[in-house]
């Protein structure tokens, strides 16, 4: 039965022209499509920040250490920080990681405007808007989101997010 179900999903992919591999899902009788990504598109990760260097460092350390998809840049959108340690952190960060840049937004707090400003500095074909207080827990996260977003007709995807106590914060975009 499982092989027949996988073949049915694979046949659907073939009929629709989607490129992907059907694998077993997390639970019995469930399946996952691992979509192929054409080429190696650059993903620009935009992260607004104001002073919170501890949270930002935790987020960035996890991105750099765990992200399997290699074609990304990080743009920190500095938003009116006042602590000197923040600017020292930014300097060290850009020295240590050539794929990380800091741009300075000098307007008042407006989350949409801040991200739109950061987009002007982005070089990627895809944008990922990320808060400064997240921590990557699995290496496939960026490649998985890119593979879904690259499918025809898809304009946005979202990740499943957990609170520190492992309860669900956000289930993604449906």
Describe the structure.
There is one protein chain. Helices cover about 35% and strands about 25% of the residues. The strands form three sheets. A four-stranded parallel beta sheet has the order 5-4-3-6, sandwiched between helices. It has helices spanning about 1-15, 55-65, 85-95, 110-120, 140-150; strands at about 20-25, 30-35, 45-50, 70-80, 100-105, 125-130, 160, 170. The model has no long low-confidence stretch (mean pLDDT about 95). The longest helix has 15 residues, at about 1-15. The protein contains five helices and eight strands. With about 170 residues, the protein is an alpha/beta fold.
List descriptors.
elongated; two-stranded antiparallel sheet; four-stranded parallel beta sheet; 174 residues; alpha/beta; 8 strands
Indicate the topology:
Layout: H1 2-16, E1 20-24, E2 31-35, E3 43-49, H2 53-66, E4 72-79, H3 84-96, E5 100-105, H4 111-121, E6 126-129, H5 141-149, E7 160-162, E8 168-171
Parallel strand pairs: 3-4, 3-6, 4-5
Antiparallel strand pairs: 1-2, 7-8
Rg (CA only): 19 Å
The helix fraction, in percent, is: 25-40%
Tally of DSSP helical segments: 5
Shape: elongated
According to DSSP, the number of beta strands is 8
Strand order of the largest sheet: 5-4-3-6
Report the structural category.
Answer: alpha/beta
Structure in a nutshell:
This protein is α/β, with parallel strands linked by helices.
């Amino acid at each position: 039965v499982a092989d027949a179900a996988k073949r049915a999903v694979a046949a659907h992919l073939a009929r629709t022209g989607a490129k992907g591999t059907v694998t077993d899902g997390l639970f019995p009788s469930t399946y996952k499509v691992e979509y192929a990504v054409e080429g190696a598109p650059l993903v620009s990760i935009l992260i607004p920040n104001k002073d919170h260097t501890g949270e930002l460092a935790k987020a960035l350390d996890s991105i750099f250490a765990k992200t399997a998809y290699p074609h990304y840049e990080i743009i920190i959108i500095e938003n009116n920080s006042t602590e000197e340690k923040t600017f020292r952190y930014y300097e060290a960060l850009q020295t240590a990681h050539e794929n990380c840049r800091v741009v300075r937004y000098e307007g008042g707090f407006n989350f949409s405007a801040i991200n739109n400003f950061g987009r002007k500095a982005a070089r990627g074909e895809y944008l990922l808007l990320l808060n400064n207080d997240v921590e990557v827990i699995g290496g496939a996260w960026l490649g998985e989101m890119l593979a879904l977003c690259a499918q025809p007709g898809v304009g946005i995807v979202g990740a499943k997010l957990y609170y520190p106590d492992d309860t669900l914060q956000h289930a993604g975009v449906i």
